[in-house]
Amino acid sequence: MNKYKRRKRALIVVVIIIIVAMLFTYVFALTSFASYAYTPPPSQPGVEDPSIWYPDPSNMPMDEEEDEEPDPVLTITSGMVRFNVGERFRIQYKMEDFPPGTLLEWQTSNTAVAVISSDGVLLAVSPGNVEVIAIAGDKRASVLATVNEIVADHIVILISGDIVQTGTKKYEIELGDVIRLSTRILPEGAKVNRISWKLGNEKVAKISPNFQTCEVVAIEAGETTVSVTADNISDTITFTVIASGLLVGRLQELIGFAVIIVVAIVAVLVFFSWRSNKRKKEIARQKAAAARRKKEEAEQRAHEEAERAEMQRELRSAQTENRETLKINGAAVGAGLPAPPSEGGTKQERPVTLDDLD
Fold it and tell me: Pick from 193, 221, 245: which residue ends a domain?
């Protein structure tokens, strides 16, 4: 019995708790809904019950919309750039709403006129107009730049090396010194079409010009000027050449001349020696040829003389034989005897006379 009562009381407590929770939930819901302000809707034709109230949409809770990312903006804040050849100019820009780490790239439309570094520093190269372009992601911005041509208005002669300066643009050098000069054109970046050098006294020094540089060699004591002219501007300096203890310059010059003379003399001697040897060989060849001819002629004469002597001997022998035959035949004929027969047959031949030998 007691066990049954305890279960009944527990069931009643649970039911009460459930009823209280439901009442609490209902009251909370009514309180939240009552907090909204209601406004009557505007009268509309066809609405029969104007007593219906609608909640104010401005006071209704709304779902939060997702924030949209703003569009990136790239702007060059520098206006049109005007500068001179050789000058530099940093382009100013602004990057807004780009993702972190976005790189900015620079370009120019004509690198012969101007070039730009990766950090936006523009360098003027030659006169002309150029477009400067900035690129970040898919965004581009540009600005125009004009490079002016610089007109030279001053030129200065520069001297390399330490030499004695005796006054304004006056210097003292020694015989044999070699001085190298160069030029500086102002303002910086200005260009000229031509540069020419001129020496005042050619007996004192000699020059070897090479456009913007020039080499001066002191060859004799005295004073001379060296001038440079670039378009319509010029500069002049004065050199005083003094004789040094060893006269190095003159000795170098004399040594050079001596070498040239010795080489020329050796060349002439070699030539004449060659000609002389060639002439001697030709004379020896002619003498040998003459000796051979004389020997051949002597041999020919000796051969001819031997042949003539042989012919004379044969002729004398034949004449002797003929005379003997004539004597024999004549004697036989005078004695009334017949002529002796010939060796080859019975036919008798007439006696040989001196006419037959001729």
Answer: 245
